[in-house]
Amino acid sequence: MDLFNKVVEYVDASFKGKKPHFERAVFWMEKFYPNFTEADKIAAYAHDIERGIRGENEGDYLNPDILKRHSEGGAKIIGEFLEKNGADTETINKVKHLINKHEIGGDTEQNALMDADSVSYFETNAEMFVNEKAPKEGYEKIKEKFDWMFNRISSEEHKVFARENYEKWSKALEAYKK
Ligand SMILES: [Fe+2]
Ligand SMILES: [Fe+2]
């Protein structure tokens, strides 16, 4: 089995099932980053691995300390997995570099992953935030998350791919406005 498929197996097992969010993140990463390599593909699929291993941080989506722990923790987890599975140093370092900043961006390649994550989020996760999280956590908390996920996208060109879903789910969320 090649390295990417080992990562897929590991991520899917950690989340107890396949998450479309990760497949779509790979799709958008390839679109947003012209020099897409195996490391980009692995980073896109595994970017949220920390959550699979440590569990969800309910309702504290934008806390900078939690985002940092989530990103850096995920980079460390996948780094160790890749090392155990014989990946070369260059691949390991690239994957860690990308996952480290997948929530806040940084260089062009890190921004591409952050943008891919956002576009995929509105395709695959936002509906669950409306239907399952908003009833418990309220409109404001989820709208804040939606706005943050949309606004962080690093270019207008990439926002185009998220806008329709962002608007659709923001509107659906209004049902939970007090
Ligand atoms: Fe994340
Ligand atoms: Fe994500």
Summarize this, please?
The protein is mainly α and 178 residues long. The protein is built from ten helices and no strands.
- Spatial extent as radius of gyration: 16 Å
- For the record, what CATH class applies? Mainly Alpha
Number of E strands: 0
Q: Looking at this structure, what is the CATH superfamily?
A: Hypothetical protein af1432
The percentage of residues in β strands lies in under 5%
User: Tell me, what's the shape?
Assistant: globular
Low-confidence stretches: none
- Which H/E pattern describes the elements? HHHHHHHHHH
What is the averaged pLDDT score? 96
Bound molecules: fe (ii) ion
Distance separating the two termini = 52 Å
| CATH architecture type | Orthogonal Bundle
Count of alpha and pi helical runs: 10
Give descriptors for this structure.
single chain; 178 residues; mainly alpha; Hypothetical protein af1432; 10 helices; globular; binds fe (ii) ion
